[in-house]
Amino acid sequence: GEDVEQSLFLSVREGDSSVINCTYTDSSSTYLYWYKQEPGAGLQLLTYIFSNMDMKQDQRLTVLLNKKDKHLSLRIADTQTGDSAIYFCAESEGSGGGADGLTFGKGTHLIIQP
Amino acid sequence: ETGVTQSPTHLIKTRGQQVTLRCSSQSGHNTVSWYQQALGQGPQFIFQYYREEENGRGNFPPRFSGLQFPNYSSELNVNALELDDSALYLCASRPGQGALEQFFGPGTRLTVL
Predict the structure, then answer these.
(1) Rounded to a whole number, what is the distance in Å from the CA of B80 to chain A's nearest CA?
(2) I need a surface site. Which of A101, A102, A114, B8 has the fewest CB within 10 A?
(3) What does residue A96 show for φ and ψ, rounded to 5 degrees?
(4) CA B102/CA A105 separation, integer angstroms
């Protein structure tokens, strides 16, 4: 079945860049997403990338996709305390998850050191 | 705030009981999905409703069922509760099946004793 893997924790200093990595197994993944979850809140879509793209940049966020290695990364530039959260990588075959839904990783806890 | 609300916020039940969780989707959103997020895990897709019909389902047994109403609000029903059903249940709505962004509610925390 489909699988999405992420490392569980990442600790960075405030002002540095954070790079969160993800690998997935489903070669038919068409859409790949990054979601953010803060305590007591639902999931917030940060960004997404189509599988025919290599890179997408949106303000402080940069997504890199290596389709050959099935590797996705999220870079957050100038990390701030407000970026402290759990970041989930997700994939789907259809847009928005389609009728098969999104497949999520277990999430990476981003810890910001002052 | 995503405009998606869920009730109740917390719930405690005992094994074997039945539970109904509710979701009010963002205005105009006709597609609702439900996810189960166990502690320390990522969300897992339960099912999706589009215009009052279930049109997609993840790997969950039939005791997980749902409804979507004409105003597109939705319910998740779980029968014969098991301890492993303890989790955060998230609903997500979007304006159509082709829409990329899903708007998640804050979730209902269910504890089964």
Answers:
(1) 25
(2) A114
(3) 65, 10
(4) 17
